[in-house]
Design goal:
Spore Coat Polysaccharide Biosynthesis Protein SpsA, Chain A; alpha/beta; five-stranded mixed β-sheet; two-stranded parallel ribbon; 10 helices
Length: about 300
Amino acid sequence: MGACLTSLHVQTYPKHLFEVLLVDNRSGDGTCQYVLTAFPWARLICCARRGSGHARNAGVEEAIGSLILSTDADCVVAPDWIERLVTLFQTLPADVAAVGGRILPMSTKTAVERYAKSWVQQPDASREDAPRYAATPNAAFRSSCLKSVGAYDGTLGFDDADLGIRLGAAGFQIRYTDAATVYHRNPIGIVELYRHKVKYGKHNFDLSRKHPALLGWPTGGKVLRALLKATIRRVLGDICVKQPLALVSRLEGGTRMWPLIDAVIAISSYRGFSKAASLARAAKCLAQAKPGGQRTGNK
């Protein structure tokens, strides 16, 4: 966090034209006192409701600027980050509600850190079937547009993707730029990567449950079976075909072990999604078993 706040303090954009808001989400590690002592110029806001979406909403409510820029505590922003985004918005039409900037890895020391699919990144803008959104480690919004759709949901891990869907449904555009850069810390080793992607798998389930048109109703057996088959094909291809080739061919993906890392990503993503689906089905069965509960007949 210290590196993040320091990078915000050395911006090329005039300091009197922006404010830095830091939202504390019920931390118990002395973060508040550290910020008050080391970074007294940052405006500290306390949010009692757990969750990054609720914390961001607390910041949105307190912000007074016409633009709201977002980054995370484990990020470092480029010195011209604010200046680049402000300048860009001055050239964009009014219906562009959000801009997602470039997110680069903070470190590439380990094999996992060098594999691009393990990085936190902006969504692939070339995919027509994927939702457009500005990933919160490097996102900028028109405050009026953001507030008009109710800001972040707060109950979803992928609140930024959900926000992008709702902005699009409201008729707003989302753009991307490589001119404004943020450096993000990514998982260092296999265990951290596995846990990270399990969490992302759960977030994908929660997102698709709220927006079933994107993936189909996620608790349905058909969707889970298709996902399991795709995961098995990906893992077998990685281990049986791609990994042996990677050991004897030209270096790809920053490491010769990239197929094994990709297999871990596939397994953990499926694990998170399927576990969330199982918990949702169990909760539904419990609700139906209670007095007054009504069975729907859905399988």
